[in-house]
Structure formats: structure tokens, C-alpha cells
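User: I'm putting together notes for a lab meeting next week and I want to include a structural view of one of the chains we've been expressing. I don't have a solved structure, so I'd like a prediction I can at least talk through. The sequence is below, exactly as it appears in our construct file.
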Amino acid sequence: MSKENMDNFLPDELDKDKLIELLSNKQSFRVVGIDSTRKTVKQIEAVIEKLNMTSRVYTENRSALMGAGWIPNPLVGFTLATSLVTTAGITVHNLLTFNPDYEIRKNYIKSTITVVYKK
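Assistant: Thanks for the context. Below is the predicted structure for the 119-residue chain, given as C-alpha cells.
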């Protein structure tokens, strides 16, 4: 399902029963207009775990952090090191959450969470 075709929900529309329905039916969806990303992600993760499924949580556009380190600037040593640490962290995270049922993608700029069924 493309991002354009996903159903959008406000956080107060996603009570536990609605989340169970969406996740049990292996649907992808987006939560918009979020005030507390952490709280909403925890709520979604709890239902995924209750349904004996796995998830991977990450920030969208995180690859921009990796690429930024390669841009020449006066602090090239610092930004290169930051880029390498970010890349290593992402790699370890991906290995620890290998082959999840769902990806939970946080976007702090747009105040959205995109939940994508992967299997």
C-alpha cells in the first residue's frame, strides 16, 4: 500500500480496540496531528506485542544524518565521526529488529507516525 492510500487517524481516534482491529488485519496506517510521539508509539508498540508480533521503530529520513557527515565543512572531523556513529547505530538497530511484522516510522517535522505492515 502506498503512503498516499493509507488511512489517516488522529491520536484520539486510535483507542486500544481500533488499534487491535487495524493491526490484527495487518493494515498499514498513519497517525497525524500528534502531540506526544513517544506516548503514541508506546501505545502502538504495546498492542503489537500483545498480538505476538514484532516491530521496528525509527525516525524517518534518518539517512540524512548519515549523509550530512560527508559534506565538507570546518568541522569535518566532528561531522564525519557523527555520521559514522549514526551509521553504526542504525546498522545495529536493524540487526536487532530483523524482519519485523511492522515498521513504526516517526516523523517529528510532520508530527506523524506511519505504521507499515512488512510481512
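A couple of points you could mention at the meeting. The first helix runs from residue 16 to 24. The chain has four helices and five strands.

User: Perfect, that's what I needed.
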